[in-house]
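Example protein as discussed:

>
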Amino acid sequence: MNRIDFVSATLPARKRIALVAHDHCKERLLDWADRQKPQLEKHELLATGTTGLLLGRRLGLPIECMISGPLGGDQQIGARIAERRIDMLVFFWDPFEPQPHDPDVKALLRVAAVWNIPLAANESSADYLLSSPLLGQAHTLSIPNYASYQADRQTAGY
């Protein structure tokens, strides 16, 4: 397989932020989001099912809810990242508790890394991301050159 090359893309000043939390981490995410509400309300928020419902109630902000993570919500978030419809992922995952949908979790983290979006896997990294001066401004980053990837595959006969 050919090596992937990269192109520049720009994240908008108003970010589309996905918020995800495993069951044992939901309360921590809710408390964190409460503290970060002044920053979060400036952006578009998305979340997996239960997390989104809880966040909407707690924050009083509009949250676009996917379905529950174990039922495919993690994959919905991942698809939006690949479509460049999510700019940042905050995922409070539980490293101590095995998840029945671990492959989906790994796939979500992988697609966030592939598409080079800011990713916070815990409260400290989420605080750093939300306090960054880049949060409220457009930001250029490198993403895979999918057009080049497709052209290479066609040339190779795939």
Q: What stands out?
A: The chain has a mean pLDDT of 92. The two ends are 11 Å apart (CA to CA).
